Every structure is written in structure tokens, then in C-alpha cells.
Amino acid sequence: MAPRANWKGFLRLSLVTCPVALYPATSDTEKVSFNQINRKTGHRIKYLKVDAETGDEVTSEDIVKGYKVDTDTYIEVTKDELDDIALDSTHTIEIDEFVPKADIDNRYLIRPYYLVPDGKVGHDAYAVIRETIRSMDKVAIGRVVLTNREHIIALEPLESGLMGTLLRYPYEVRSETEYFDDIQDVKLTKDMLDLAKHIVEKKSGAFEPELFEDHYETALIDLINKKRSGIPITAKAAPKTGGNVINLMDALKKSLASEKEAVPAAKAVKETVKGKKPKKRVEGQREMLPPIAGKGGKDAAAKTAPKEAPKKADKPVRAPARAKKAS
Fold it and tell me: According to the model, what pLDDT value does residue 273 have?
């Protein structure tokens, strides 16, 4: 199923306007997630919205927004009142200025989106705006309203489209001075820096995110597959620590030596991974074990497990990411 747009409206540069749609460029729906359940019954926990004083459940139509001004004192704000102060950027991304990309502090970056033409019209205007930004080698700064809040958005060309990145406001970014003031000013010798540079050179390479692996996610999937197959879970031994580093120079030398030994092995692994063909993606499939029949519970997996030694399930192939509304 195609992802759903988080926002639809118009992109405008002066008098040039085109209809566009905004889609999230990232997704967390592929990660393993858990529900809270009752240990005694195995049933899922349900949360109810209740009045803090009376304890009575409150229906959705009776819930309104309120701003706390004092203990038990709130200023009620209705949906109509919020709609009345809605900004022009509710339906239009107005490009206000163009800035060098290098001028944007990374701390201001929130999340990326894809901005694409909406429908069959407006592609010419979209291309004009995209290529103008590309030729100027700058980032377009505009405003967009998502979930009733106005956000600053930075637009830049990405292949044949535009990528928009939401930016934080200054009041959302903390100053580093209150954290860095207590860092000691130490003097480092040239030999220490040279050794550290050698370590960096040994570890240097191209940025290839397709080779990244979420080890915790892999461990979660393995745990779930084992439990569903009825395989006993054994506690992992605590990792051995190398102890406190006494001499920084010795530590740098040992690190450099270990990196020299690790480089050939890492290179071989990298080439092997790159040489493998990716698994065929199956729509909506995770390749975990099929659901266990019955009500479930601690003993369900063991009762339904086959008599022969169960095989470890393959790492699931992720289903296509589902779009979420921006929060």
C-alpha cells in the first residue's frame, strides 16, 4: 500500500505555485515493538481516559484542550478557537529566503520529508523551483503547519525531487556552554595525536549505511523466534571488561596494533556483504514463525513446538514502511 501523505498543499516561490504533498522520509514501524499485557491472564492492557478527581471515564467528545495556569486551574481552548488563529502556512509552504546549507547548525535538524508534486499539474513550476535551488547551491527556508503547529522547513534538491527537513526554533536548542564549561583544558603531545590519527586512518572508509546492522533489533528477533519455537533461553554471561586505562600512550599503541590486525578481517566481511544478493522483499511479510494456535501464554509455544529440534528462523524481511503523521 502506498504511503499516505502527512500534508498536502502548495509550494510557492513569489508568484510561482504548484500543488505538492509531503511524505515522511523515515519510518520506525519496521522495528520490533511490544504491547503491555497482564502477566496472569496474558491479555493486553487497556488504557482509559478518566477524570482525575472523580475517576469516571471520559468520552472523546467531552475532552478539550486546557492550558495549566495554576494548581487545578486551566484555561480551556476549543478547536474552533485554534482554527481561528490558523496560519496561512496551513495550506501553503511559502519560501521566505535562501541560505547556504553550511550555515544550518545540525542541532536544528529534526526529521526529513519528501516533497513531491501532487497530481498531474504543476510539474513545470515544481521543476523551476527545484532547479533554481540547485543552481544557487542553497537551501530554501519556508514554513509549514503539521498537527496544528507551524514548523520551519529547509528544502533542498534530492535527485529528481525535493527533500524538506523540519528545523527547531532557537528556544528548543540548548546552549552548549552550560555543559562544556567544566571540561578541563589539557595539553596533548604530538606523539599522542599522531597515534590517534593513525587509528582514524585505519578506520576510515566510505559512508555505506546499507552495511549498518541494528544488533539489538537482531537480538530481539532471535529472542522472539526462540521463545515461539520453545527453545530454552539461557542468560548470557556478563562481558569481560579490560579494566581501567592507566597510561593513555600505551592505550593508543595497543589500539593501533589491534586496528592493524582487524583491518583485513573487516575488509573481507565488507566485501562478502556487498557481494551478496539482497533477499527478495515480500509484501507484508516478516518471516517470523506463524501465529501459535490457542489462547497463548507461557506454555503455548512449548506445547505446539515440533518434537524434532526446532530450526532457528531466518531474520525477517521487513515489510514496506507505513507512513505516520508528524508529531
Answer: 56
Strands, DSSP E only, in 91-241? 92-99, 109-117, 139-146, 149-158, 161-167
The rounded distance, in Å, linking the Cα atoms of 47 and 54 is 17
C-alpha cell of 116? 513531491
Going from the C-alpha of 164 to that of each of 2, 116, 154, 187, 306, the distances in angstroms are 20, 10, 5, 42, 51
pLDDT of 318 above 50? no
Q: What is the pTM of this model?
A: 0.70
pLDDT for residue 281: 43
On the CB side of 291, CA atoms within 13 Å amount to 5
Residues with Cβ < 8 Å from 297, sequence gap 6 or more? 42
SS3 content of the chain, % helix, strand, coil (to 5): 30, 20, 45
**260: three-class secondary structure by DSSP:** helix
Asked if 310 and 231 count as a contact pair (C-beta separation under 8 A), the reply is yes
**Signed CA dihedral, 159, 164, 170, 175: sign only:** negative
Q: What is the pLDDT of residue 176?
A: 93
Least confident of 43-52, 171-180, 241-250: 241-250
